[in-house]
Amino acid sequence: MNVLILGSGGREHAMAWKIAQSNLLTKLFIAPGNAGTKEVGTNLDISQTDFEAVKKAVLENDIKLVIVGPEDPLVKGVHDFFLNDAELVTIPVIGPQKYAAQLEGSKEFAKEFMVRHNIPTAAYESFTAENIPAGHQFLETLTPPYVLKADGLAAGKGVLILNDLQEAKDELTEMLANKKFGAASSKVVIEEFLDGIELSCFTLTDGKSYVNLPNAKDYKRIGEGDKGLNTGGMGAVSPVPFANAAFMQKIEERIVKPTVEGLQKDNIPYKGFIFFGIIKVGDEPKVIEYNCRMGDPETEVVIPRIKSDFLELLIATGNNELHTKTIEFKDETACTVMLVSGGYPEAYEKGKEMHGLDKVDGSIAFHAGTTTKDGKVVTNGGRVIAITSYGESFPEALKTSYENIDKICFEGMNFRTDIGFDL
Ligand code: AMP
Ligand code: GLY
Predict the structure, then answer these.
(1) Cα(298)–Cα(185) distance, rounded to whole angstroms?
(2) How sure is the predictor about 328, in pLDDT bands with cuts at 50, 70 and 90?
(3) For a 10 Å CB count at each end of the chain, is N or C smaller?
(4) Which CATH superfamily is domain 123-191 in?
């Protein structure tokens, strides 16, 4: 079977790497892909949100399964586009339709869903520009810190956590009246602050059955010790040591099952990944957020820990046959460390030549923001490459990643030396 993956990050390279190992694969395409995906498949120079171009590529290359990596094409309706096109309707798309993608695309939609299906999450209220004074009053009833969330997608920047009441009121006004995050903050969810440690859990579902993928913990801040600005993710570890069997059982019973059943009760079709951002408060799991896709860099540790044929699971998802499949994990731990461009997550330069990738030994280099120029691999994004390793324990896996990172360099290269520090 010919397969297309939409996206160009480390997540998509990890998926491509795994799918390329399947006996069920004939040809693999990645659109637009990066310098790493090119090693395991064919990159197509089209934008992941240019649906007409995607259609042309699918028909030209006889593609029979499409896997959507990032949220953007899903929230913009790529799956709906396929369902509404006579030539594409029979080609399964892994990734939910636009309506269900609101689980990620609208904080209020996700909150209402959780409340309706009794899924544990932080208490909340939502506000618009019409009721800013009510928002200020609501903030007065809370104890700090105050959590303000832009309802829509804001490139990971839409959540503010503030200690000062006046600052929280001012920011609420900024978001609603002055559209601090554009249309994304025309509605704001104010939430109870949850104090705990976070992990990411992943489920693949065809809308009825599901399989759980390995869990992971990612490190979002740019600086050591989880300080500084938020990034897309600087590293990840799987499995999460503090998530023991009893805790994972609670997540399954109270969160995963009610979510998949809730989608069915609400008549919301869902084929694809559900990413549960979970926080452990005491011994209890609560949902911080849903995403309608896999995490990045979590995928760079989750996928390497899957022993089963991943493409077989995806095909079964596409055909509504996931109930006939089970998933097996590798026992080893996997860790990844992200190498980023100097300046990231603020302004940074691209096009820096990368050296030493050929010397990497015992780790997997998943490309995130790379491209090729004059036959050389050069940087092409903020997050550049994720160095993943296996180990008996996570310190052992990390040691291998850091040893290999010593061999790699590009101008301005930055990374965190303390992934897993809190575990
Ligand atoms: P979100 O985009 O909803 O995942 O929020 C981004 C980050 O803000 C999360 O990963 C948490 O670290 C933090 N966060 C979000 N909501 C809360 C909350 N209710 N209590 C504490 N921290 C939160
Ligand atoms: N690593 C967090 C995310 O993918 O949203």
Answers:
(1) 27
(2) very high
(3) C
(4) ATP-grasp fold, A domain (3.30.1490.20)
Domain boundaries, given as residue ranges, for the chain? 2-99, 123-191
pLDDT at 155: 77
How many A from CA of 240 to the centre of ligand 1?
18
Q: Of the ligands numbered here, which is closest to the C-alpha atom of 233?
A: 2
- Contact (Cβ atoms closer than 8 angstroms) between residue 223 and residue 404: no
Ligand located closest to 230 CA: 1
- Residue having the nearest C-alpha atom to atom 1 of ligand 1: 289
What spacing in Å lies between the alpha carbon of 262 and ligand 1's midpoint? 23
The tens digit of pLDDT for each residue in 367-401 reads 999 999 999 999 999 999 999 999 999 999 999 99
What atom of ligand 2 comes closest to residue 291's alpha carbon?
A: 5
pTM for the whole structure: 0.96
Ligand nearest to the CA of 71: 2
Encode burial over 308-342: b for 16+ CB neighbours within 10 A, e otherwise. ebbbebbbbbbeeebeebebeeeebbbbbbbbbbe
From ligand 2's centre to the CA of 233, what distance in Å?
6
In this predicted structure, what is the pLDDT of residue 182?
A: 87
Give the Cα separation of 264 and 84 in Å (integer): 22
Pick from 384, 391, 401, 346: nearest CA to 157: 346
195 Cα: distance to centroid of ligand 1 (angstroms)? 10
Peptide bond into 145 cis (omega under 30): yes
Q: Is the CB of 300 under 6 A from ligand 2?
A: no
Distance from Cα 352 to the centre of ligand 2, integer Å: 25
Reported confidence tier of residue 153, pLDDT bands at 50, 70, 90? confident
pLDDT at 212 over 80: yes
Mutate to test the pocket of ligand 1, among 159, 194, 218 (most ligand atoms within 8 A of CB): 159
- Find out whether 108 and 93 touch, Cβ atoms under 8 Å: no
- pLDDT tens digits, one per residue of 334-372: 999 999 999 999 999 999 999 999 999 999 999 999 999
